[in-house]
UniProtKB/TrEMBL annotation:
GO molecular function: ATP binding; ATP hydrolysis activity; branched-chain amino acid transmembrane transporter activity
Annotated family: Belongs to the ABC transporter superfamily.
Biological process (GO), any one: L-amino acid transport
InterPro entries: AAA+_ATPase, ABC_branched_ATPase_LivF/BraG, ABC_transporter-like_ATP-bd, ABC_transporter-like_CS, BCAA_Transport_ATP-bd_LivF, P-loop_NTPase
ATP-binding found in the keyword field: yes
Residue intervals passing through the bilayer: none
Entry keyword set: Amino-acid transport, ATP-binding, Nucleotide-binding, Transport
Top-level taxonomic group: Bacteria
The name this protein goes by in its record: ABC transporter ATP-binding protein
Length: 235
């Protein structure tokens, strides 16, 4: 059984149909990527899985249980966390206060242990634990957003555009961390406009165009696919 199974999912904003009946799945231990141009429906898909948007129709099963209709905090408690696009850290709070917020579904004792794990993956956050998040660099804020999502000890971590706006060297660093998290047992659903990097680390990928999945394959297959190269990899 797939860890996450999305079937015939349709989502709209008023009259705008953003996601038009998509189906995909993720097995435990995989990195799966959704790639696509601006407005293809990638963020809408992640936000719907996280329970932030109610779909028009379709089903989202996580470990066999339906998520549609479940409140976002309950979805987090079941082991599914979202690191949103644009990071959305609490700018007036310190690094460690932001991380505490991520652990709100868990006990203090659990959070103490998880915090050590997060600081192992992100030593830079440990150095800056008392710094106000709004003064962190873009890359550090991305690390904080990821660390905050990890505080809920997700089985499945959804990352929305983690490389957005980062200098190439930081993009490399973020992708290394994504791979390390996966090696440590976290299944990952990765939404990226940096299709090249995403397909290199992903076991499988799905290509989303105007709300529909138009292609799927292994990361390696999609990297050499002519259509994908033309549309998303610069020829
Ligand atoms: P990007 O990479 O630019 O974030 P995306 O693939 O994540 O794109 P979505 O953000 O999911 O795409 O948007 C899908 C479609 O839904 C777009 O046409 C967008 O304009 C529309 N949309 C997204 N959010 C809203 C909203 N709150 N109200 C109305 N339309 C929306």
């Amino acid at each position: 059984m797939a860890m996450l199974s999305v079937s015939d999912l349709a989502v709209s904003y008023g009259a705008i149909k953003a996601v038009k009946g998509i189906s995909f799945d993720i097995d435990e231990g995989e990195i799966v990527t959704l790639i696509g141009a601006n407005g293809a429906g990638k963020s809408t898909t992640l936000n719907t899985i996280a329970g932030l948007i109610k779909p028009d129709s379709g089903s989202i099963k996580f470990s066999g249980e339906e998520l549609v209709g479940i409140k976002p905090h309950k979805i987090v408690a079941r082991g599914l966390a979202l690191c949103p696009e644009g990071r959305r850290v609490f700018t007036h709070m310190t690094v460690s206060e932001n991380l505490d917020m991520g652990g709100y579904t868990r006990t203090d004792a659990e959070n103490k242990e998880t915090l050590e794990l997060v600081y192992e993956h992100f030593p830079r956050l440990k150095e800056r634990m008392n710094q106000v998040a709004g003064t962190l660099s873009g890359g550090e804020q991305q690390m904080l957003a990821m660390g905050r999502a990890l505080m809920s000890r997700p089985k499945l971590l959804m990352l929305d555009e983690p490389s957005m706006g980062l200098a190439p060297i930081l993009v490399d660093e973020i992708f290394e961390i994504i791979q390390a998290l996966n090696k440590n047992g976290t299944t990952i659903l990765l939404v990226e406009q940096n299709a090249n990097m995403a397909l290199k680390v992903a076991a499988r990928g799905y290509v989303l165009e105007t709300g529909k999945i138009v292609k799927t394959g292994t990361g390696a297959e999609l990297l050499v696919d002519d259509d994908v190269r033309k549309a998303y990899l610069g020829g």
